[in-house]
Amino acid sequence: xxxxxxxxxxxxxxxxxxxxxxxxxxxxxxxxxxxxxxxxxxxxxxxxxxxxxxxxxxxxxxxxxxxxxxxxxxxxxxxxxxxxxxxxxxxxxxxxxxxxxxxxxxxxxxxxxxxxxxxxxxxxxxxxxxxxxxxxxxxxxxxxxxxxxxxxxxxxxxxxxxxxxxxxxxxxxxxxxxxxxxxxxxxxxxxxxxxxxxxxxxxxxxxxxxxxxxxxxxxxxxxxxxxxxxxxxxxxxxxxxxxxxxxxxxxxxxxxxxxxxxxxxxxxxxxxxxxxxxxxxxxxxxxxxxxxxxxxxxxxxxxxxxxxxxxxxxxxxxxxxxxxxxxxxxxxxxxxxxxxxxxxxxxxxxxxxxx
Amino acid sequence: xxxxxxxxxxxxxxxxxxxxxxxxxxxxxxxxxxxxxxxxxxxxxxxxxxxxxxxxxxxxxxxxxxxxxxxxxxxxxxxxxxxxxxxxxxxxxxxxxxxxxxxxxxxxxxxxxxxxxxxxxxxxxxxxxxxxxxxxxxxxxxxxxxxxxxxxxxxxxxxxxxxxxxxxxxxxxxxxxxxxxxxxxxxxxxxxxxxxxxxxxxxxxxxxxxxxxxxxxxxxxxxxxxxxxxxxxxxxxxxxxxxxxxxxxxxxxxxxxxxxxxxxxxxxxxxxxxxxxxxxxxxxxxxxxxxxxxxxxxxxxxxxxxxxxxxxxxxxxxxxxxxxxxxxxxxxxxxxxxxxxxxxxxxxxxxxxxx
Lengths: 355, 355
Hints:
Helix content of chain A: 40-55%
CATH class of the domain at 78-268 in chain A: Alpha Beta
Shape of chain A: globular
Order of helices and strands of chain A: HHHHEHEEHHEHHHEHEEEHEHEHEH
Oligomer: homodimer
């Protein structure tokens, strides 16, 4: 493996001095890019992109060719793990992901087992290796997984949902069964992320997209506790370097102190919190990643520049901030707005990093 | 008007001593009740229920006949106001509310005017009067409105939305036009709530269902500022008594201090915040209303009792808490679960109010 030419992202996550605030964007390889759509058309469908390491590598690198990004993120889907558990992931035309066999019976829940990540998820590890080779040390590669609870949401509901009513009904009717699913998921996510690290991921992120719809008590018991278990089980070093971990609960702004206490290195923030206030609350315990509203990219150039500068200013001086969106980029985003955002961060941020 | 026999709800909102924690439930008159569905079938459709004072009175009183509730809430819809502005509200079968003429052109936005609430919204005031008469002083009647921003969401988008992308695009492209809509809406909401108070509403609540999807900065500029203007313009007394106002921003747990600073009397809480932590943050500035997860009503009796007791215990001793859900009741809720919840609150709460 070649040495890393740009490690600004990794250093910011460790709150080590940097020259500017590094950036990457959630879902930076995606449908807002014409070149992505062209590759996807060649691949045939979304899952074929994920399952073929050549296609996954191609789309992972596309945004890096256009924009001044400081990290690449593995192109994949959070639902590969429950798919490998045998739930049968598919994408209905014009709809979100669905499972053929959602967890609706006690026997199915009791039968659940964590998959060997090098077997049924070998295609993901192949993609990690292929992307690392193609990156050739230009920027670090981020691996990722859904959180145990977020995976459970799709596994029980069988699809996305407005309110995940079936999930909450199970959680409040049979907490024992929900805990069983989450234990299996925590093992599966830990093994999956460690396999990504062994294959070459240089940082890992856990996406807790749906933990924020839980009550304060239920969040701690059913989502945070299992993310903490995953963080504890992660390989902490690879290639002679710390592999930082980032936790992101969308809508989790009230729980930052608890999230920081898991031992992770960084927290993702959505856009509802003031990043300066968040920094005061977590102190020097963790780095912060975020917190630009992705829909502000639909706005005027002035509003994009103003919002980006306001976030940088609110975070203030010193390292520990990775600029990002507060959620995945919207498919209707104009690619030139993304360029303006990233150029603004790159050009404005050095003044916050003067020694 | 007769004297109020049970004013526990009003006293709790003013943080005056009470014997138990009063309760009401958002959307307590609704589709989870068979008697509601029967009345709705007779009325023909949802809007006919709202527009006919006899039907509105009938459904408003239905949950009070079943449950130990300490307040009634006017049966109506938040979108009556933009409908009275001429946007053409309708309900497509099996879908949410829609507008025939959403605000998509600058001229339409410039043409917008606050409606005279006693004219085009006279049916709402007739319902308030009729409900007050039917209540006969048993419990207070709550009037309500959508927040200026939440109304604007539907007015611009033309319907509900996952992300209100059109609204955010307008907000970030043409903030001047968004501010114009919000100014008109703030006047309309103030006039509408004051007309409800004149007709007999004894407390008022402002529902900011969508403010919580805004960034920290945008929330303060586009939602909170206009709710503050409404609160300032509200009639503060009626029938020789304070008319308390409650602000509720779903997902607004990070902004409680700012909301309390508007001069309102109470804040609605969703279920993501610990109510004891919220109480510490707002001090004795406002009362708190909430914060039971409505989907916990799908759970086992044990979980309903446990969650209700945990909320009461977290709030702790003394007045200033109105028990409620953190969002409207789900239509699939078993009516007996609602009874268990309300009996639990009524029976468990007196120990927190011993002098």
